[in-house]
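User: Can you predict the 3D structure of Inosine/xanthosine triphosphatase? Sequence below.
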Amino acid sequence: MYHVVCATTNPAKIQAIHQAFDDIYGEGCCHIEPVAVDSGVPEQPFGNHETRTGARCRIMNARQVRPEADFWVAVEAGIDDDSTFSWVVIENQNNRGEARSATLPLPAIILEKVRSGEALGPVMSDYTGIDKIGRKEGAIGVFTAGKLTRSSVYHQAVILALSPFHNEVYR
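Assistant: Sure. Here are the predicted structure tokens for Inosine/xanthosine triphosphatase:
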């Protein structure tokens, strides 16, 4: 059984990571351990580079906290080109996999508040009345009428980032 350290305590992210590992390695293949670590970037990262840096920094910090793990996984959400997206970074002792998620264009009313310094999660909670929406369906769930959720979009990116770990062609 793999010891997978998630560099987050966010349930939507943990669910995506757990499901992706089950999908790739088989149900019950891993023990997920969430850890709260710093991203080294603002609460609301902007741009591809800052968001990816946040995920990489979370991995580095998670490795320091739990060096004995088999895998370390980070999901960092950000804003880029008027859309929300995330970077997933996964490492083990020998490899790194990275993937960027699908993007969701955000409405101007939401972007205006985010650009003024508020993080997307609290803005969406105010807009919808759903407490801590970033730990649930997120903006993705709201604006896709529940067809996708934050977790389902992260799930795809985690699957993609796992590719170097189970395909020989990457080695």
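The mean pLDDT is 95. Residues 47-65 form the longest helix (19 residues).
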